Amino acid sequence: MKRKPPWNEAVRLAALERYGILDMPSDAVLNSIVQAAANLCETPIALISLVDSSYLWLKPCVGMPEIKAPRDYSFCNNAIQEPEKLLEVEDASKDERFKNNYLVTGEPNIRFYAGKPLVTPDGIALGTLCVIDYKPRRLSTTQRDGLDQLSNAVMELFHERLESRITAIDHIVEQAIQDGVMITDANQPGNPITYVNQAFELLTGYSKAEVLGKNPRFLQGPDTDPDKRSQLCNAIAEHKSCTVTLKNYRKDGVGFWNQLTVSPVMDSSGKLISFVGIQRNADDRLLAEDRSLRLSKTRQQREQARASRNRLAQIVEDSTNEIYVLDADSFQIMNANRSARNNLGYSFDESQQLMPWDYVEGLTQENMNGLIAPLRAGVLDTQVFETVHRRKDGSTYPVSTHLQYMAAQDPPVYTAIVQDITERQRQEESVRLRERAIEALDVGVTILDATKENNPLVYVNQTLCRMTGYSADELIGQGAGIFQRNNRQQIPHLEVKAAQAKGESVQVLFNSVRKNGSRFMNELSLSPVHNAKGKLTHYIGINRDVTEKLETEERSQRSRKIEAVGQLAGGIAHDFNNLLRSLPEIWNS
């Protein structure tokens, strides 16, 4: 479904350009946020989608490659129409907005989508943080809240980077006041100078009137490095920024080292209009100071990087998930965090000697090669699978594993994030047992959503389906009134409404209608269900077809009436016979 751009599209695109994130490379922080979204929502795909005028810029991504995709007909284009809301599509094949979308009808056959807009402080949506699945599903409240928090984290990161860029630009402007500035016209032959500041005049000895209209090459001379000159010319030809230090000459013929930075300037349509050159006197003293400053800054950056790595290492070590780093060639464990060592029962030194098949049930080196093949080929970013881990003492426990190939590391490694799913499987089995028990009941069971208008059905068992002739798919989402059709004003319906208003249970008898139009007597017991905070969330209905029972009772009652009438008639006949026998005696007397 193609959506028109939001009313503030021009403002939104300007904000997107101001943040400068379309060409932003993926980094570890954004990757970790996207991976956290996939883990939280238990989906194979998660990504950050930035929406420009024509395309979606998808990066970083988990479960699919980073690409640029057409904007029209995209899910994210719909999501940004309402920046304050999370767009959740539980089954795109049944959603009128998306069921004919080529992403739904063909590869990749999307069924589930949830996207939380990435919103600036002034309410402008730049894109979304979204999760995608190939099968229908519904997010829990916890997952929705978590996705909202993660989208806020992405915007906080974008905003920090924007402020850093603004600070850097302000710094450049301040420095430019002290440095020589010249501007050339990129649309005129020879890039003639159209502006110089006073610092340029002091640095070169030329007045503004003497240089306007000239090509900046007039400052060069016999000792100007031809390689630096070529580097500068190539950058200008390719419309790129460039910084070189080359020998220039003042008006009096005295040479000086000029640290020159040239940058292209584009108009709003992206057309090159000029070049700006920033010139700085780079004699030995200034070069020495500059080197000292760069060294100091480099040391500071190294310290910051070291501190950042230490923080990240501590986060990994303290994670409740098991985290393994494997050598990409041998598969030997290079590092296993505390949770991994504790769960497996190995010491740090012992863990360094382990291979994956030493603790993964049924895994061989051949199996391992099969798992990593799509990662090495770039077909998959993450290999997700469930398996069983074996502890040092021989006991086992089920796990879910996210395996990634980190080719950019030196040397390349595999990282495995492993979650113990013992409790999850126990809960899933408990749910399955309860579902099987409910399905085995000889009464129809319905569960209705009390938080929505008309209390739609969210669950029915097979007994109810057999009782009514409807399939579960036909009933889910319908109001329970489907069984009364146009007879919603019958007294039992009013009794149910009265009980719901009081928050009480109720038992009534409905004259209900099956899908084929036949009627049956439905004895309904309806009870309210509250959550841990006491809020009404659902109703549970127990439905019994008592048609045959009532008919049997009616036949029995009719038989008793007939028998009573017969007995009465027999008594009358007996009395009449006695009267007839006594008549002759009466007449004789």
TrEMBL record:
The keyword Ribonucleoprotein does not apply. SUPFAM superfamilies: GAF domain-like, PYP-like sensor domain (PAS domain). Residues 240-294, 504-558 form the PAC domain. It comes from the Bacteria. It holds the Pfam family PAS_9. PROSITE patterns: PAC, PAS. GO terms for molecular function: protein histidine kinase activity. Residues 165-239, 308-350, 430-478 form the PAS domain. InterPro entries: GAF, GAF-like_dom_sf, PAC, PAS, PAS-assoc_C, PAS-like_dom_sf. Keywords: Chromophore, Flavoprotein, FMN, Kinase, Transferase. Its EC number is 2.7.13.3. Transmembrane segments: none annotated. It is an enzyme of class 2 (transferase). NCBIfam families: sensory_box. This is Blue-light-activated histidine kinase 1. It comes from Granulosicoccus antarcticus IMCC3135.
